[in-house]
UniProtKB/TrEMBL annotation:
Top-rank taxon: Bacteria
Keywords: Membrane, Transmembrane, Transmembrane helix
Cellular compartments annotated: Membrane
Pfam family, one: YhhN
Transmembrane segments: 27-43, 50-69, 75-95, 102-121, 127-145, 157-176, 182-206
Protein's UniProt name: Lysoplasmalogenase
Keyword Transmembrane tagged: yes
Length: 208
């Protein structure tokens, strides 16, 4: 319980610092929030393949956070780090699936992804291919989590699916903020959904 309180406080301090400062607080508490979740997986979960894959996903998410926070924004390294994180999460989710595919889910996720990509397309420029690949990877990650949940209806799978969907929401808002233009509520929307997404995926690793 105290571990999750520390995660909540750390995430809140980062969001507050994004609007009000100080800058050191902004830079410290974003990666610290993810590092605390990693600690929860290490100390609270079973030593199994799923937990190790989630831990790897959290680690590459931490790398991505650092790249995107640097004074000279490293968007491509950050994008690649999160791409690897989503691949680890995807493998974790798909390894749990053993049943009949539900094909309406990828159709729905695919349609939503295409719409998002087309809305961003006029502003992507040279990042068209990397962003397109990223959207496809995160959509199939959510698909894997969804198939896992619909096949088992377990609490573990529900956490995973909820986290994957929130990750899509967070990244969609971030993409519109970056490529369409910033708006005041973007930070709280992106970071609250992001931290909740990672928290739910972390919970899935310790509830199996």
């Amino acid at each position: 319980m105290l571990s999750w309180l520390a995660v909540w406080c750390s995430g809140l301090l980062h969001i507050n610092a994004a609007y009000k400062g100080p800058r050191w607080q902004f830079y410290l508490f974003k990666p610290l929030t993810i590092a605390l979740m990693m600690l929860i997986v290490v100390t609270g979960g079973e030593a199994n393949t799923y937990a190790y894959l989630v831990l790897a996903g959290l680690l590459f998410s931490l790398f991505g956070d650092v790249f995107l926070m640097l004074p000279k924004d490293r968007f491509i390294p950050g994008l690649l780090s999160f791409l690897v994180a989503h691949i680890f999460y995807s493998v974790a989710f798909w390894l749990q699936f053993d049943g009949t595919m539900v094909w309406w889910l990828p159709s729905l996720l695919g349609a939503a992804s295409v719409i998002i990509f087309l809305l961003l397309l006029p502003n992507l420029g040279p990042l068209l291919v990397p962003v397109g690949v990223y959207i496809a990877v995160i959509a199939q990650m959510a698909w894997g989590a969804g198939e896992f949940w619909m096949n088992t209806h377990s609490q573990m799978a529900a956490y995973a699916f909820g986290g994957a969907l929130l990750f899509m929401v967070s990244d969609t808002v971030l993409a519109f903020e970056r490529f369409k233009g910033p708006f005041r509520a973007s930070v709280v929307l992106v970071m609250s959904t992001y931290f909740c997404a990672q928290g739910l995926i972390t919970l899935s690793a310790i509830s199996g």
